[in-house]
Amino acid sequence: MKKHLIYIATDPNRAYVEAGYTQDLITQSANLQFHSSRNVGKLPKFNRIVHVEEFASFDSAQKRLMELTHFTRMQKERLIRKHNPNWLNLTSSSTAMSSHPALRVSHALMAAY
């Protein structure tokens, strides 16, 4: 069974927050790191994934992604702080992804859909 993951990424200064979809969180994190290091313009340099939700189906993941993209910045910040108050990078080697409270939220959300 494929995992369908919705994530929220941010830049080092937390100035920008953006939601996205992936099936492989580690690869997505590496892509964000790579593109942020090569980006020399005024575009945001997303380099940290600070919130993740897992879904069983693609449709439910896309529905949640649409919700998150319509959230205000304050709503996204509340969601992140509720499960990851220090805005830690959930894909770093020092963070145990499977035991992190921000990842446990996904199972409760899956039951709601």
From TrEMBL:
Species for this entry: Sphingobacterium tabacisoli
InterPro entries cross-referenced by the UniProt entry: GIY-YIG_endonuc_sf (IPR035901)
Domain of life (superkingdom): Bacteria
Protein name as it appears in the record: GIY-YIG nuclease family protein
Gene3D superfamilies: GIY-YIG endonuclease (3.40.1440.10)
